[in-house]
Design goal:
370 residues, four-stranded antiparallel sheet, Helix Hairpins, 55% helix, Rossmann fold, 3 domains, 16 helices, alpha/beta
Length: 370
Amino acid sequence: MIGVSYQLRVTNHLCKAMKPIKPAATIKGYLKVPRSALSNRLALGLILGEFVIGTVGYMWLEGYSFRQAFFMTTITIATVGYGAVKALSPAGEWFSSFLILLNIGIFAYALAVFSYYVINGEIFRKIHLMSINKKIDALRDHVIICGYGRYGREVSQNFLHHRTPFVVVETKREVIEELERSDEQVLYIEEDATHDEALLRAGITRARALITALPDDSENVFIVLTARQLNPNINIISRATEAKSQRKLRLAGANHVIMPEQIGGFYMATLVSKPGAMEFFSYITRESESDIEFEEIHYRNMPAACRGKTIQDLHIRRETGANIIGFKHADGNYIVNPGPETVLSENSSFILLGTKEQLDALQQYLARLS
């Protein structure tokens, strides 16, 4: 009994010490092929190289013409069973055997590459990316959005509503997959926005504005610096998380610096003191719920017949129903509810408020005057 008990204890300890083998995990670990090992360019290069070796080899060993050597290489690689163009010498037979064995390896690799790209959808993804890049190359006066987080999504939804052309630059793979699955046709680039190449691919030299909405202020500063260097005339809007970053972003070249947390805090505080006014402001800024929109008319976009005229002489309210609620001076200062004697001067603009129908009527009215 003592011997049996001892044997049982030993067996129990051995069983605990032995780790269970996981066949599936082991096999998966050995059979998993890294994506970098499968290259369609390498597969194509190997096939072309095989044709070159075969054609040159037959021309040198058998004295075939180029046409005969290429045909012999083709039927050897394809293993269609046709006879030789001419009787092969022993050296030609050895060379044909070598070419067939070489083709087995190349064909297996090419088949693996083709299967990977078809099964994983890489072929269709590459076609999709080629289509996107072609559309991006055709853009002019568009907007570049760096970062597709909470604020980047909100900006893109606004642009989609107004049909403003834009490109998203994002580096996170899960966000890119979300854009790929989206029903909306959003143009995007999977690249780090801090790299010059990413902004150049997004058409920074042709864009009219850039919005960087990354959560890291240092990355926003770097993007602003790069964008200003690549396009000195572009309008740059940057997000800032820390108050001390605002000055740095402006020195880097940002035209506007926005602190969402500061705006949100002001909005919540004003809801306590002036709830009605803030609710009305919130209503007119939610374009999905209201039909009220804002419009800015620059001096350079006004017809020649309208330049130098006062607000009273323009008859905008009478002809279109839109209201001029603001006047922006050339120095950047604003006048709220400008008087009827206000004249639109060079480098200044009017801010208007109205429904979509009224603003459309405004554009038609200005077109008639021009």
